[in-house]
């Protein structure tokens, strides 16, 4: 067994991991700062060692064969573990925790509470990124993320935090000016913020109103709850928001939830990170702290 490990073609495996991840020999060469010819050679070396083709060569791209598809996640996991172990040995993984989150979750839930985590773990600094895109935990310098969805992402561990729900809210000033709606359909007579948001159609369908009822309204798009909530607080119209993120505004009366009905499309917020890095100390610390914060909502 030791001799077999020593004879593993590590260079070829590293090239295979990049090519399988990117499905392109050209992009793998760029990623590894190699020539495309060198990438092709290393793939050929590995295929000879495995005894079977790993890629189907297409005119403009490559596809994994059945053998390649079985090997790819194993190799990816192994390299991620090596990288994590190396970083841990150098002490880099203990100092800074890189967190990526949707802007709404970050601004309305995480940012006001992240200090509590740092009080418990003063040796861990937190770097928070609110770029609204799915991050690649195998390639980017990101440790954990908060992601909305259904919880199924290849190579990613996912822990359910809370369901994504939504309902119309407005400021008292708007209701004083226009009157409080008595029925959900009354909202259609009021200025509506972010009418292009799919949540509006889902909520109207939930309360029995035709999904196309908003077609006559201007199709504005503010892009995030942090923006639509600001417009609602300013009395510009009715916004559809997640109640959990606006508990203080609702408690103080700055916002009013117009109806008890909550819409949902089955998605949740999830804590996510690379499966291969699940035992990294700083990730475990953040995971335990965050799941403890949501424990009441998960039971």
From TrEMBL:
SUPFAM superfamilies per record: Periplasmic binding protein-like II, Winged helix' DNA-binding domain
Residue ranges constituting the HTH lysR-type domain according to the UniProt record: 8-65
Molecular function as annotated in GO: DNA-binding transcription factor activity; sequence-specific DNA binding
CDD domains (alphabetical): PBP2_GcdR_TrpI_HvrB_AmpR_like
Keyword Transcription regulation: yes
GO-annotated biological processes: DNA-templated transcription
Keywords linked to the UniProt accession: DNA-binding, Transcription, Transcription regulation
Family designation: Belongs to the LysR transcriptional regulatory family.
Transcription regulation as UniProt keyword: yes
Protein name: LysR family transcriptional regulator
Alphabetized Pfam families for the sequence: HTH_1, LysR_substrate
């Amino acid at each position: 067994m030791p001799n077999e490990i020593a004879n593993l073609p590590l260079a070829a495996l590293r090239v295979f991991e990049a090519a399988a991840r990117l499905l392109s020999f050209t992009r793998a060469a760029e990623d590894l700062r190699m020539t495309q010819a060198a990438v092709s050679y290393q793939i050929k070396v590995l295929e000879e060692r495995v005894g079977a083709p790993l890629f189907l060569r297409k005119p403009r791209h490559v596809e994994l064969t059945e053998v390649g598809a079985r090997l790819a996640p194993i190799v990816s996991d192994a390299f991620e573990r090596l990288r994590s172990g190396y970083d841990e040995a150098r002490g880099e993984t203990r100092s800074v925790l890189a967190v990526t989150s949707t802007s709404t979750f970050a601004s309305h839930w995480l940012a006001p509470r992240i200090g509590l985590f740092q009080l418990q773990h003063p040796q861990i600094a937190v770097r928070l990124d609110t770029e609204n895109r799915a991050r690649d935990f195998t390639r980017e310098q990101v440790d954990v993320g908060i992601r909305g969805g259904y919880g199924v992402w290849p190579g990613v561990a996912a822990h359910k935090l809370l369901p994504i729900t939504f309902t119309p809210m407005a400021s008292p000033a708007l209701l004083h000016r226009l009157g409080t709606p008595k029925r959900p359909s009354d909202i259609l007579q009021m200025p509506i913020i972010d009418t292009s948001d799919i949540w509006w159609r889902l909520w109207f369908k939930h309360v029995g109103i035709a999904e196309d009822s908003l077609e006559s309204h201007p199709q504005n798009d503010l892009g995030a709850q942090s923006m639509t909530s600001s417009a609602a607080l300013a009395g510009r119209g009715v916004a559809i928001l997640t109640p959990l993120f606006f508990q203080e505004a609702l408690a103080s009366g700055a916002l009013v939830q117009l109806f008890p009905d909550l819409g949902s499309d089955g998605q949740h917020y999830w804590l996510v990170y690379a499966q291969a890095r699940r035992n990294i100390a700083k990730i475990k610390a953040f995971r335990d702290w965050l799941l403890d914060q949501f424990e009441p909502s998960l039971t």
